[in-house]
Write a sequence for this structure.
């Protein structure tokens, strides 16, 4: 089975779990390159674990919103579908909290919403910022002024 990472044509030693990058997530969600979507579907349906890093999810959200012009509500549903798969190992609980903040604050970027939610979850509050928009919209952010 293809699920072991390959380097120079050889599987890597150990019981490692492969990770999906942003391009894999985008192909899976957009189904714009059918053969690549089919491969991701095969991997997801294989029953073996796949890892998805926070950065890959954040970049996926950014591309869907800014490049593909997809609504935040649609993006939220798509990301929830990804992280809802038991086979996907990711920061699930964090993104379950981040997504409503993201959809509820359309003037804030996904990374602003992520950082403020992460600060709350890790009790590293307030999130200090020079961004007035962020500080005014999220209670966990505090404006720094000179």
């Amino acid at each position: 089975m293809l699920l072991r990472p390959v380097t120079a044509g050889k599987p890597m030693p150990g019981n490692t779990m492969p990770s999906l990058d942003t391009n894999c997530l985008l192909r899976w969600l957009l189904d714009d390159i059918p053969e690549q979507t089919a491969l991701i579907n095969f991997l997801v349906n294989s029953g073996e674990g796949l890892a998805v890093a926070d950065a890959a999810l954040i970049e996926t959200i950014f591309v869907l919103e800014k490049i593909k012009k997809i609504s935040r509500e649609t993006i939220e549903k798509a990301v929830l579908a990804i992280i809802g798969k038991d086979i996907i190992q990711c920061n699930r609980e964090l993104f379950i909290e981040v997504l409503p903040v993201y959809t509820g604050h359309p003037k804030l970027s996904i990374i602003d919403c992520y950082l403020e939610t992460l600060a709350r979850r890790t009790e590293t509050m307030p999130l200090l910022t020079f961004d007035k928009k962020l500080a005014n919209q999220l209670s966990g952010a505090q404006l720094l002024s000179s």
